[in-house]
Amino acid sequence: MSKPPTLELPPGARAHRLATDRGEFAVHDAGEPARGTALLVPGFTGSKEDFITLLAPLARAGLRVVAVDGRGQHESTGPTDDEAAYAQSELAADVLALARALGGPVHLLGHSMGGLVSRAAVLLDASPFRSLTVMSSGPGAVAPAQQQRLKMLLGALPVMDMAAVWDAMIELDPPEAADVSTPPEVSAFLRERWMNTSPAQLSATAQQLIAEPDRVEELAAVDLPKHVLHGALDYAWPVEDIAEMADRLGARHTIVEDAAHSPAVENPTATARALLDFWAADQGR
């Protein structure tokens, strides 16, 4: 779970609802597309706020940056009891609709679960995209310890209310996910975001994280610039598996030092620099 250090949008950024041919999505939107547009897709239990620290540096570099709440996440509406609405193919179709609404082709970035959804979108149709970055996302299912944690969540959702599940999940956070310096307003936001997220979305995406197949060879065959970026540590996928995925993809590979599963939060300066370097190289193609 990413913990944004602040909830304050930088000057010039705005929160609004972006209309697409598959409905409206809550977004944070910054910058002008002089050098292109970047679409940022959050991970499991995440939201657009996970990318707040990237908005200013990417916008200053001449990009329009749009971070989104996916269907059923935080401020983007979605059914609360229909898991079929959150099948990976449906979420991927939403990403394609967002890219179309932004005028594509766009630089696509997916964090964690968002990386799997972004991969699925590219495999459905790569034409709305200029490049793909998968951030802290692996080749298939998450690590066994995370699978066990997700199975506990799947067992709890039908029999506990969301507030009780939140309390239980916090108790199960790995030590490296803890941060006693989290500001009170951010802690309150994290709980609010959880309460706003559709239980059906959580259930459907948890099952995807447990059962996701390795689709690296499929993605490698797509003619699109690819970038694999992750922290020096990661508790969702082993970093050696992520590195091997980058090699199999023939992708640019960035390891962000002083970062774990959420480089955009934990080391936004290095993360933004790596993204800009990759996207600048794409412009020279």
Task: Give your account of this protein's structure.
The structure is a single chain. With 285 residues, the chain is α/β, with parallel strands linked by helices. The chain has a single domain, classed as Alpha/Beta hydrolase fold, catalytic domain (Rossmann fold, 3-Layer(aba) Sandwich), CATH 3.40.50. Helix content is 42%, strand content 17%. It is built from 11 helices and 8 strands. It has helices spanning 52-60, 88-101, 113-124, 144-156, 162-171, 184-196, 199-211, 216-220, 239-249, 263-266, 268-283; strands at 14-20, 23-30, 37-41, 64-68, 106-111, 129-135, 226-231, 252-256. An 8-stranded mixed sheet has the order 1-2-4-3-5-6-7-8, sandwiched between helices. A hairpin with a 2-residue loop joins β1 (14-20) and β2. The radius of gyration is 17 Å and the shape is globular. The N and C termini lie far apart (35 Å). The relative contact order is 0.16. The mean pLDDT is 94.
